[in-house]
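Comment on both lines for my students:
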Amino acid sequence: MAPRKLYVGTKLRELRTRIGLTQKAFAAKLGISLPYLNQMENNNRPVSTSVVLAMASEFGFDVTELSTGDAERMVTDMSEILSDPIFAEIAPPLADLRLAASNAPALSRAFIELHRAYRQTHERLASLDEVLGQEATNLQPSPWEEVRDFFHYCDNYIDAVDRAAELFASTVDGDILRAGNLKFELQFTDSKNLRRYDPVSNALRLAASALPSTQRFQLLHQIALLEQNELLEATLDLARFQTDAARHIAKIGLANYFAGAALMPYAKFLQAAQSTRHDLEQLADQFGASIEQVAHRLSTLQRPGAKGIPFFFVRVDQAGTITKRHSATRLQFARFGGPCPLWNVHRAFETPGRFLRQLAETPDGVRYISIARDVSKPGGSFTAPTRRYAIALGCEMTHASALVYADDLLPASPQAFEPIGISCRICPRRDCHQRSVPPLESKLSVDHDQRGTLPYTVE
């Protein structure tokens, strides 16, 4: 594929404003004319290589911050929203969406939030589960969605929390479950609760039946709540959540983030990931973590100046519902419907305990390698239910040589890449044998005298 031109006018303006320079002074520092800078800041011209190098040398700017990840995520979200039938006659072209995401990101986010409010209201009215005259707070995003989007647009990397966890990990000598300098009493019980802290006795009780990786994670989660509370609250203040419920849920997410980052400290884990070529089982053994914890941590390695491979990570239940999702790649997950059934993550339930590999290509022509595995979680007794999930971790093929899972798949013929999409409602593929609903933005033709793969033809 031809390299995509980089339009980052918003980030250029942010850098100039941050260092307190006028356009004229900034242009002089970069060695370019004032009109040229003005054109780049307004996204009338792409940023040039010489300007990127000048930004790095003159201001120490981390060029990895010029990633178009946020803009691509918003373009994907807006494309899916505009497949709604209410936009059938007025949906703008993809080029306009890219301009909006690059030039007016705040407006693009507002549009996404507005459609979310419309969708929620429509669903509530259709199901008659709300009464007329209920408070207008119903138009707000659900707390879970608000928190999900917070991590989504932070690239799933929270720098202050990550560095605090890394610093804490440097003070732990050996296994955290056997550390002698904990500020509370650690107990193991037969309780069904994974974790329970009693502030009166200053005792933390963990389930004895839980796996050691789960016990370590829950212990570090409680340490985050007790010893890093000020940092967590400051981060929540910056996020400006709309509801108390969202803030409380986000605090759990931040404590989980701290736990994963302390269990797998950034620099040490990044080095190990590179040396093992991202072998999830080796990394799990080395850091005393679970396969899911390792896969999730790999998707967070986006520290400026020390980024790992940009991965996507997703967890689904047996119904195909996405329960965790993040993407540092151009691949984005469906926000308003089910994921593509052709992803290998859905087949992982059929082969428990095994990694499934998949070469895939999305409608935009980008190719990926993906690995999937079930991560079912036993309940701890014969009568307790088992929670069944599957995870997928993947990256673009340009990084495949750094993955042990790709060794015997390279080089691969074009026919080896399975065509996948984001969700049926926005996928443009015309002859997909797994299509569940027709694409909303396309016209259909029905011929009663013939039948192909589908009972209709997508025009």
Observations:
- Residues 126-138 have pLDDT under 50 and may be disordered.
- The first strand starts at residue 185 and ends at 189.
- The CA atoms of residues 24 and 237 lie 36 Å apart.
- Residues 9-67 form a domain with the 434 Repressor (Amino-terminal Domain) fold (CATH 1.10.260.40).
